[in-house]
Design a protein that fits this description.
4-stranded antiparallel sheet, 510 residues, globular, binds 2-acetamido-2-deoxy-beta-D-glucopyranose
Length: 510
């Protein structure tokens, strides 16, 4: 099998960095480090005394030193800003598909100056390299090394500062709004018993409710950085029918939400906006991990969280927005045709190898796996280590969801389908005939050749390439695209792939 692999490198800027001397290959999985074999810390006494005196009283506690205090009321100094939406369950609560006809169609556009962005040589000013560990420039103040952006005392302005910023944060806002509705919706339509059957307790429900409240804060923050044209909450159309499918959908949705932000955050013109956005996406990343844990998946089976272009995040998100209110600000991003993985691994199976074709609840690319399996095939019904997948801090699948060399059967849509709010966007591609599958995971973009087997169908094999020696790059819930070329790109110029993308999908690896 020929795998065409493109190797991005951290040394792309042409820097010569001495590689550490190779060592006798230790097993990173076992955490083995020379000198620490058979560790048995004498201070870590492992004998656990039998329980004989457990807590029985949970009433009033010791009284400790304290004062009466309260948050300042509106109008008083130090009072907090209002939330844009402070009523979790009173937003749009109707759900389902949109059946009307769009009055406006297509992405926001004016008169593009060229069809693609041409590649340029490295920025001539990007030359800093420190060989002696000393300060290379005079310090502007004590304890203050020269350099940095937004460090010269200028007053911060927490507002988007270009069309790029505006469209990126507007997209982020669309994502925050669906999360606010989605997390509340799952709590509203599934009972405590439904959650318990999926191994999730009342405390887990409270956590999901708290995550919805986090979205109220995130939506408010992003709205404030946009101004009066910030998009409002829309009406959504969800694919799940069980709690298990709900948390699976959430781990996929928050994955592209998080990765969508990593893709653009360092390209923002406004560093101030980037600062606050980073502080919200750090929370979203925790949500993503918690939903993986609720799905009985390994919480973070990668070394690096990947970034994707905005048009990718919008492609994944748009099919779940059925309609938006009149005058909702429209987006400039592209909607790519859907790339379907026919034999996508089912996270609910004891044996992912046994997954049948099309074991998804629907055919939107971010749809969850079907959870209603025969009882003896569902990993929810066993606690056997390596096989069980009930919610846990961590799970370790003896039989991986997918693996290097797995044949991946693909089917893709033609462009031209209506999608997104009020069916008012249209899928499109500027690519020629697809020839490669691009795998975007961790720091990596790896291509494998596509074998076409018929109109809009074909297959490839999961690549084996590593991030750094020892860890395969492909793991986690990640992203695949059909492309017409194997153009070399790295995390900071990945969006240059867009003119070459014929279809876009999600791949459920480990
Ligand atoms: C301060 O830094 C900003 C960029 O962060 C720059 O645009 C501005 O010109 C600088 N101001 C001064 C007074 O150097
Ligand atoms: C989308 O459809 C909804 C429901 O029919 C309608 O109220 C709304 O005005 C439409 N939005 C746009 C932007 O046309
Ligand atoms: C939509 O915008 C138009 C033009 O600004 C305005 O006349 C109309 O009242 C707005 N509709 C809503 C529902 O805000
Ligand atoms: C899953 O399929 C792969 C490839 O054929 C095989 O190597 C592996 O043993 C299978 N897993 C199990 C648990 O049978
Ligand atoms: C998804 O598409 C495939 C191929 O067209 C089809 O076989 C399958 O039934 C579809 N799944 C659903 C849930 O509609
Ligand atoms: C599960 O149960 C069905 C019906 O009893 C049986 O045919 C099948 O072989 C069982 N599968 C396994 C993996 O035990
Ligand atoms: C697995 O463990 C959970 C929690 O301890 C328990 O509720 C469940 O019944 C167990 N499942 C099986 C199949 O033993
Ligand atoms: C976890 O999985 C890895 C890889 O499959 C295996 O080597 C290791 O023994 C497993 N650990 C446990 C506790 O099952
Ligand atoms: C993954 O990215 C790292 C860091 O840029 C690079 O060293 C490695 O060669 C890449 N691996 C593959 C398979 O592309
Ligand atoms: C992939 O993730 C699984 C957990 O789902 C982990 O056990 C395995 O080590 C990871 N593989 C690689 C190559 O990182
Ligand atoms: C993307 O960046 C890498 C350096 O990280 C560079 O080698 C490559 O040529 C760039 N790709 C394009 C299309 O500019």
């Amino acid at each position: 099998m020929l795998l065409k692999t493109i190797l991005p490198t951290a040394l792309a800027a042409g820097l010569a960095v001495a590689a550490p001397a190779p060592q006798a290959t230790p097993s990173h999985d076992a955490g083995e480090v020379a000198g620490y074999t058979n560790a048995d810390a004498p201070f870590g006494d492992s004998t656990v005394p039998p329980l004989s005196n457990t807590p029985t009283s949970f009433g009033l506690d010791s009284q400790i030193s304290a004062i009466q205090t309260a948050a300042p009321s509106p109008g008083e100094p130090g009072a907090a800003d209002t939330l844009r939406s402070d009523a979790p369950l009173t937003g749009p609560t109707s759900h389902g598909p949109y059946s009307g006809t769009a009055t406006t169609t297509g992405a926001v556009s004016n008169s593009p100056t060229a069809a693609t962005i041409p590649a340029l040589p490295p920025n001539p000013t990007a030359t800093y390299y420190n060989t002696n560990g000393a300060l290379q420039h005079v310090q502007p103040a004590p304890y203050t090394p020269y350099g940095g952006l937004g460090t010269n005392g200028t007053e911060p302005r927490y507002m988007v500062n270009s069309d790029f910023d505006y469209e990126s944060i507007q997209l982020g806002l669309y994502q925050e709004w669906i999360e606010l509705d989605l997390f509340n919706n799952g709590l509203a339509i599934f009972s405590e018993e439904d959650f318990l059957a999926a191994g999730l307790t009342a405390e887990d429900r409270s956590l999901i409710g708290f995550m919805a409240q986090q979205e109220e804060g995130h939506a408010t923050l992003l709205s404030n950085m946009l101004g009066e044209t910030a998009a409002p909450q829309c009406t959504y159309n969800y694919p799940f029918t069980t709690v298990r499918e709900f948390v699976d959908f959430n781990q996929i949705l928050t994955r592209y939400g998080e990765s969508g932000v990593w893709g653009f955050i360092n390209h923002l013109d406004s560093r101030e906006v980037g600062q606050l956005l980073a502080q919200s996406i750090a929370t979203e990343a925790r949500q993503q991990m918690a939903f993986r844990q609720m799905s009985g998946l390994h919480p973070m089976p990668v070394w690096f969280e990947t970034g994707i272009p905005q048009s990718w995040a919008w492609t994944f998100l748009a099919p779940y927005i059925s309609s938006c209110p009149e005058n909702t600000t429209r987006l400039a991003w592209q909607n790519f045709p859907a790339l379907h993985v026919a034999n996508q691994a089912n996270i609910n199976r004891i044996s992912p190898n046994d997954t049948a074709n099309w074991e998804r609840v629907g055919n939107r690319t971010a749809d969850p796996a079907i959870s209603t399996l025969p009882q003896n095939a569902s990993c929810l019904n066993t606690n056997e280590t390596g096989y069980g997948c009930r919610p846990a801090i961590s799970r370790n699948r003896s039989e991986p969801l997918s693996f290097a060399g797995k044949r991946v059967d693909l089917l893709w849509d033609a462009p031209g389908s209506p999608v997104g709010p009020n069916n008012s966007y249209v899928t499109s591609t500027a690519a020629g005939a697809p020839a490669f599958v691009a795998w975007v995971a961790q720091l990596n973009l790896t291509y494998t050749p596509l074998t076409t087997t018929g109109p809009n169908t074909g297959y490839t094999y999961q690549p084996a390439g590593e991030v750094y020696q020892s860890k395969g790059a492909v793991n986690d819930t990640m992203f695949i695209a059909l492309t017409d070329t194997d153009i070399y790109l790295t995390p900071f110029n990945l969006s240059m792939i867009n003119p070459h993308v014929a279809a876009l999908g999600i791949y459920q690896a480990g």
